[in-house]
Amino acid sequence: MLVQLRASTARSAASAITRVARVNAVRGFIAPTVSRRADFVQELYLKELKAYKPAPVKESDSVGQVQTFNIPKTPKSPEEADLASSLKEYESMAVEVEGNEGVAAGTPAVVEDWLVEEEEEEAGAHH
After folding, report:
1. CA 85 – CA 87 distance, rounded (Å)
2. Are 103 and 109 in contact (CB under 8 A)?
3. How confident is the model at residue 86 (pLDDT cuts 50, 70, 90)?
């Protein structure tokens, strides 16, 4: 009797384990866990992204938003005759040297020796 009781208990325990395992397997397949379930907001967002169709771009869309490009006018070149007369005027100008303002323009100025060399003292005098 004790053996029959143990056997029936063992059978009932085994059948209970298999039932629980089957229910968990079915539940896992039908209803995913919270971590596997997609977020409702994410699903809605992805659905709206897929359904979005941008408006086609027309040529007239930029009117009023962007200025039209106008090629600038070509600059006027200086006249060649004017350059030649300016060059002649520059060449005929008198050269002004600092310190010779009082001297007449026609007479040459006295050239002073501007480089002054100091005389070297003998090397043995200091030592």
Report:
1. 5
2. yes
3. confident
Give kind and range of the element (H or E) at residue 26. helix 2-30
* C-alpha distances in Å from residue 24, one per residue of 11, 29, 31, 32: 20, 9, 10, 11
pLDDT in tens, 35-59: 556 688 889 999 999 999 998 988 8
> Which amino acid, residue 127?
H
- What CA–CA distance (Å, rounded) separates 34 from 39? 9
Beta-bridged to residue 66, according to DSSP, are 63
Rounded to whole angstroms, the Cα distance separating 90 from 83 reads: 10
pTM: 0.23
